[in-house]
Structure formats: C-alpha cells, structure tokens
Amino acid sequence: MASTAPSSSGWVPAPAVGLPQHVNIVALETVFTGLPPITLPAPHTFSLTVYERTHPDEVAERLKDADIAIVTTVVITAKALESCPRLRLITAIVAGTDSLDLPACKARGIRVLNAPGANVDAVAEHAVGLYFAARRKVVPSMQQLHQGLWPERGTIIHSALTNGNAPRSCRDETVAIVGYGGVGKRIVTLFKALGMKVIITGRKGQDSAPEGRVPFLEALAVASVVVMCCPLDADTANLISTVEFAAMKQADCVLVNVARGGVVDEEALLKALQSGQIGGAAVDVFAVEPAGPDTSPLLTPEVAASGLNLVVTPHTAWLAAQTKANQHVMLLENLNGFITGDIVPERLRA
C-alpha cells in the first residue's frame, strides 16, 4: 500500500531528517480502534503491515524493519527496541503511554506521540455512570433480585442502604477529583451540573495546595465521592492505599477509578469495602490487564458472590464512536506532523 498525497495546503514538505522516502509502517494491534485510511505527505510512499493483536514477545520481530509503529496498549520494552534499528516514531492511538519505555525511546532517538483528549467525553460520562451505579448500590440490589429474595422477604430495599442509611442525593455529595487534566475537567463540569460540590485535590505528601485546590488528605476526609482520573507514573503508583482509605471519614464514601489500575492498591480497596471503611467502589481499570480472578483480588468468585458494593467494567470507559473518530484524526495528524515537523506539542511524550 502506498500514498503520495500532498499535504492539505498543497505545499510539499521536506522529508523528516533521516527518514527514507519509502516508509515501513507497522500497526501492532488494531483490535481496539481499527485504522483510518493512511496517507503521508508527498514525496513519501509507504508500506503498511497490520496485526490485529501482538504479544510483547512478538514486538521485536514485527518491528525489526519498521520506521513507524502504530500502537495502543502493547508493552514495548528497551530490550525489544534494541532489535528495531530503523524505528523513528511510535504513535499511540490512545492517551496512555505507560506501556512504552519512554526513557529508552528517548535514548534511541525515537519520537513517541499519543492522542490525549480523544476519549475525554466518553471517560467522563462513564465515570458519572459508575458513580450512580455505586451510590445506588445497583450490583447488590441486582444480586438479591436474581436470588429471588424480593418475594421471599417482601422487600429488599435494605440492599440499597449503606450502614442503614439511604443513598445521598447529588446535592448532598462532595466530590474530590484526583487528576485535573482533560478528563478531570470534564468530570467537574458534569458533576457540578448535577448539583454536587466539587473540590480538586493537591498533590499527595504536600501539607498545602495551590490556590483553588485542597490538600490531598484533607480532601479525602471531606469527600463523599473520590474520583481517580490521574495518569499512572512513579508518583501516582498506589496513590490510594491503606492510609488513604483510613483518611476517608465519610463511611458511605464511594471511590471511582477511571485512571489506571495501578493508582489504587486493589488489596487495600477490597479490605476497605469488606470492613465498611468506605461505602462502595466502581473501577474500570486494573493493576494487571487483561484482568481476571487470577490477577485481581477484586474479580474472584468469592468477591462476586459476597454482595459487596463493587462495580467493575473491563477498561471500557474510553469506548465511544466519537472517541474512535477522534483517535483516527489524531493518528493521521501525528503521522503527517512527524514528517513535516509540525508536531502538536502536547502529544509529544519522547
């Protein structure tokens, strides 16, 4: 497959330094987002190799002759990059790049671009849905319905109670937002529209916070809802663990995680739910993905049957028709911008 289409302005740009005129592009995993029709600015032509799925052990072999790699979540290690002497660009169709060894990419002169903001609306809306499911205790109520307990007992409204109390209304909620990027800002808008009081947390470990934010532990203490929408890095790994759950003073507090699984200690979360330290949780992401009973304490058969107020979805918060359309536009912009030198600064990760 080849293209010699000129740029939209009609100007033929100079080729990227060191990039051959004919470019080998390899898409490692199209199962999640698919690909749009690929075009490159003239005089460049290209060959495109597409894989539906790629295991990390297959990365080195599949990228050994590639100039450009298109990825979503496959792990690319420094070791794999040693076998890819021609690789000049990795463009992620998604926002997250925690599966890529960014320091190794930078050391080898490999540019890494991503697609921030493509999924903002979808993730924010999913977070709101998860909040309602947890606050209204949808899962425990469904379980008791399926068990036939309503006709047996005459009522199962207790399945929607937390510590004997009825669910809060939106106007009685105080929401702490952890992570104030594009998703965090959109969640703030949606929750405020529902009448909630919303606060933005400062950084963990700091006694004070910038103007307009609330110190981290102080925010957890007053919040009735905590929403995680921060990136996963060295500073945010296990950001919420035993100490932080102890700081949540509202016994009916609900935790919502649409960030990355690693920002919440799953064992500590399970203990907080089982002990009644918090009122519920809803998570879309897991420390190990793909997640299952063997990799996450939140997904064991025992937990599923326990009646805990725990809502789980399989990392689908991003999924929406508009997300896919946005990702495809950003992918083409990244490919063409790399060649012309017109890279969107906020998408540059290495």
From TrEMBL:
Q: Where is the D-isomer specific 2-hydroxyacid dehydrogenase catalytic domain?
A: 47-346
Q: Which domain of life is it from?
A: Eukaryota
Please indicate if the UniProt record lists NAD as a keyword.
yes
Keyword NAD on entry: yes
Q: Which UniProt keywords apply?
A: NAD, Oxidoreductase
D-isomer specific 2-hydroxyacid dehydrogenase NAD-binding domain residues: 129-317
The transmembrane segments are none
* Family that this chain belongs to: Belongs to the D-isomer specific 2-hydroxyacid dehydrogenase family.
- Name of the featured protein: Glycerate dehydrogenase
Protein's organism: Sporothrix eucalyptigena
